[in-house]
Specification:
alpha/beta, 8-stranded mixed β-sheet, 4-stranded mixed β-sheet, 10 helices, 16 strands, 38% helix, 27% strand
């Protein structure tokens, strides 16, 4: 005989309270596009992969229109090491050689993307993989980086300079969750690909889609005004305040915060960086009063 544990009135009330707290946010985000950049430790932990897939599926089933943009830093680094291809970073960007760009493309489009799609599709046939190279979604141009006043070449690394959101809009119209890999064709060198920063690609896509919110998963709790002082975590700031802070940030944080700034400047209502190491951080950010991490708004 199975022993069923009955929910007490207090437990039921607590659960109902959590659901009711989400009501205004369900009203706000229903039928709205939310772009989520997926990366960091959330990509390599099996448990966090599962909770992220649950979060994205949940958004879709309550009427939000999630769009996922992913990188693949840990997986790319692992494959480059396995193939004995040197890898280095300058200013937060991976220097990408001719050898390395082939690996980047293979890992992003051939490994990370289908694995994430499969995770989400465990909850129903709702996700579909899209490459930044598909149907003119992204167009990129090579870029360098300035360090200590000197320009440094990054190889096959680029910025997304053109976005045609139609391939993503078509998938959303069909009720699907587009899962987009951050690789772009080189507009100046047809037939070649560029490794584009996934944070920046997500911001560019959010702007083109007129998204309501951009969420960037990272490996820290948020933005610190005085790193490494753990008490200096900033929960909310304006674009003007962030613009003043960007030059003082750690190099690895600059692309993420610049992406938030670009998104808000481009018309996205809010942008947030959140700790992807916490299970269900996406749902907490979107459906609770205070959210999690650091939120950027216009102003």
């Amino acid at each position: 005989m199975t022993d069923f544990q009955q929910t007490t009135p207090e437990q039921a009330a607590a659960k109902a309270g959590v659901l009711i707290e989400s009501l205004p946010w369900l009203q706000r985000f229903r039928e709205q596009i939310v772009v989520i950049k997926y990366g960091g430790n959330a990509m390599v932990s099996e448990d966090l992969q599962e909770s992220f897939a649950q979060d994205v599926a949940y958004l879709r089933f309550v009427g939000v229109k999630p769009v996922v943009v992913h990188g693949g830093g840990p997986q790319i680094s692992r494959m480059l090491d396995r193939l004995s291809i040197p890898s280095e970073f300058k200013g937060g960007y991976r220097v990408t050689s001719t050898e390395a760009i082939g690996v980047v493309r293979m890992v992003l489009t051939g490994e990370v993307n289908p694995q994430l799609v499969a995770r989400i599709n465990a909850f129903g046939p709702i996700a579909t993989g899209v490459s930044g190279e598909d149907a003119g979604l992204f167009g990129g141009r090579r870029r360098g980086v300035v360090l200590d006043g000197a320009e440094h070449d990054l190889g096959y690394v680029g910025d997304v300079v053109e976005v045609d959101p139609q391939p993503v809009l078509d998938q959303l119209a069909a009720g699907r969750i587009p899962v987009v890999s951050s690789i772009a064709p080189d507009l100046d060198n047809p037939g070649h690909s560029l490794n584009v920063n996934a944070d920046a690609a997500a911001a560019s896509l959010a702007i083109a889609l007129h998204a309501t919110k951009l969420v960037i998963l990272t490996d820290v709790p948020g933005l610190y005004a005085d790193w490494p002082n753990r008490d200096s975590l900033v929960s909310h700031l304006t674009a003007t305040q962030l613009r003043e802070m960007v030059p003082t940030l750690e190099s690895g944080m600059i692309p993420k915060m610049q992406a938030c700034l670009d998104a808000v400047d481009g018309g996205v209502d809010t942008a947030a960086i959140i700790d992807g190491r916490q299970a269900h951080s996406v749902l907490v950010e979107i459906f609770t009063e205070h959210g999690i991490g650091t939120e950027v708004v216009a102003g």
